[in-house]
Each structure stands twice: as C-alpha cells, then as structure tokens.
Specification:
The complex is a heterodimer of chains A (116) and B (114).
Chain A (H helix, E strand, L loop, with lengths): L4 E3 L2 E4 L5 E6 L6 E8 L3 E9 L2 E4 L8 E7 L2 E6 L8 E8 L10 E2 L3 E5 L1
Parallel strand pairs in A: 2-11
Antiparallel strand pairs in A: 1-3, 3-8, 4-5, 4-9, 5-6, 7-8, 9-10, 9-11
Chain B lengths: L3 E4 L2 E5 L4 E7 L4 E9 L5 E8 L4 E4 L2 E6 L4 E6 L8 E9 L7 E3 L3 E6 L1
Parallel strand pairs in B: 2-11
Antiparallel strand pairs in B: 1-3, 3-8, 4-5, 4-9, 6-7, 7-8, 9-10, 9-11
The chains are: A mainly beta (116), B mainly beta (114).
C-alpha cells in the first residue's frame, strides 16, 4: 500500500494567488481529513469527509478555504486568495472508520505552504 | 471544548533510559486515545490506539495507559534508543458532537542521546 499521497510537498506562492493542495487517500478508506499544523496552534482539523461527503467543515478558517472530494480516491483543498498567515504544513489523513473504533488515522507527508 | 495537554514539551535522555510521556484531556467523554510519532518533515505515524473501555495497549518497547475518569494517559518507552528521537503526540476522539473529530496535543519533542 502506497499510503496517503499528498502533492505538492512544498508550495511557495505570493499573497493573493490561488493555491490547490491535493490528496489521494488509502484505497478502501472511507474517511478523509484535512489538518493544518503550525508551531503556535499545533494540529487543527479543517474539514473531514465520509464517503466523499463533507461532514464537518467547522474548522475551515474562512471562506477563502474550500475543499472537495469528487471521488473516493481524490480530494483537494483550495485557498483563494492566499495570505501570509496561511503559511503552515497541511496534512491529509484517511481512515476506515474515522478513528472511532480500532482503526487508526494514516497521515500523508504533508504540503509545506509558504505565502510571501 | 476538548483540550489536550502534553507535558513535558521537550525531553532529553541518555540512551537506554526508560521514560514516560504524559497526556491529559479535559473531557472524559471519548471513544479512544491515540499516540502518534512525527519525524521532522514527515506526517504522523500511529503507534498505539486505546479504546475507551481499555486500560492499556502494548507494542514492543511501548506501553500506553489510559485513565479516562481522570483524563490522563501515559506513554512509556522502555530502553530508549536514538532512533526513538521524534515528536510524540496524543489525540483523543471525542464522543459528543462531531463524533469523528480528533483533538491533538502539541506534542513532546524527545531526544535520545547516544
């Protein structure tokens, strides 16, 4: 199993530009999570999907952030327009049952976003 | 709102020492607690998952305990090795509201010196 695959690994962009982060979950996993990690705030849940349907997006900081999951093997997180305070590492994770039962979360290696 | 605290924030020990990492959470209504390891520039790797009905889980040199009523968990690492150096995070899955939301602590940065 290739694990959770995220792209790109690094993204440097200028303020005001659109940024799209991509994620391929582990095959067969029905939950997908997007997290953001910063030194100040640690890991924060932005949004999660179950069977491609967004369930909880209360962690999405602003309307500038949007996420989609068009099918079971692909999800995107988009920031438009980007701002310097969006700089962080963005992680995608997947699970068979959302962590409620004996099924741990599997994380990708993250996308390090820098907005100048 | 669930809050997870990890103490200490950083720990440095000599190789071979046994050590304990601590995690506390404010709301005892949880489904499970997980311990993760994060290496620099990498994602998180799940180490142990303890269901709310369990008291502990063991994997090799790692042992995690859970006291749900007091809102505490510990991760015990026996005979530490330099390869254990990483950041260790705990996370709880709360059973109220958004059922599948994990709340993470900020982690303990462990350095094992050869």
């Amino acid at each position: 199993d290739a694990g959770v695959i995220q792209s790109p690994r690094h993204e440097v962009t200028e303020m005001g530009q659109e940024v799209t982060l991509r994620c391929k979950p582990i095959s067969g996993h029905d939950y997908l999570f997007w997290y953001r990690q910063t030194m100040m705030r640690g890991l924060e849940l932005l949004i999660y999907f179950n069977n491609n349907v967004p369930i909880d997006d209360s962690g999405m900081p602003e309307d500038r952030f949007s996420a989609k999951m068009p099918n079971a093997s692909f999800s995107t997180l988009k920031i438009q327009p980007s701002e310097p305070r969006d700089s962080a590492v963005y992680f995608c994770a997947s699970s068979r049952s959302g962590g409620r039962y004996n099924s741990p979360l599997h994380f990708g290696n993250g996308t390090r976003l820098t907005v100048t | 709102k669930q809050e997870v605290t990890q103490i200490p924030a950083a720990l440095s020990v000599p190789e071979g020492e046994n050590l304990v990492l601590n995690c506390s959470f404010t709301d005892s209504a949880i489904y499970n607690l997980q311990w993760f390891r994060q290496d620099p520039g990498k994602g998180l790797t799940s180490l142990l998952l303890i269901q709310s009905s369990q008291r502990e889980q063991t994997s090799g040199r790692l042992n995690a305990s859970l006291d749900k009523s007091s809102g505490r968990s510990t991760l015990y690492i026996a005979a530490s090795q330099p390869g254990d150096s990483a950041t260790y995070l705990c996370a709880v899955t709360s059973s109220g509201g958004s059922n599948y939301k994990l709340t993470f602590g900020k982690g303990t940065l462990l350095t094992v010196n050869p």
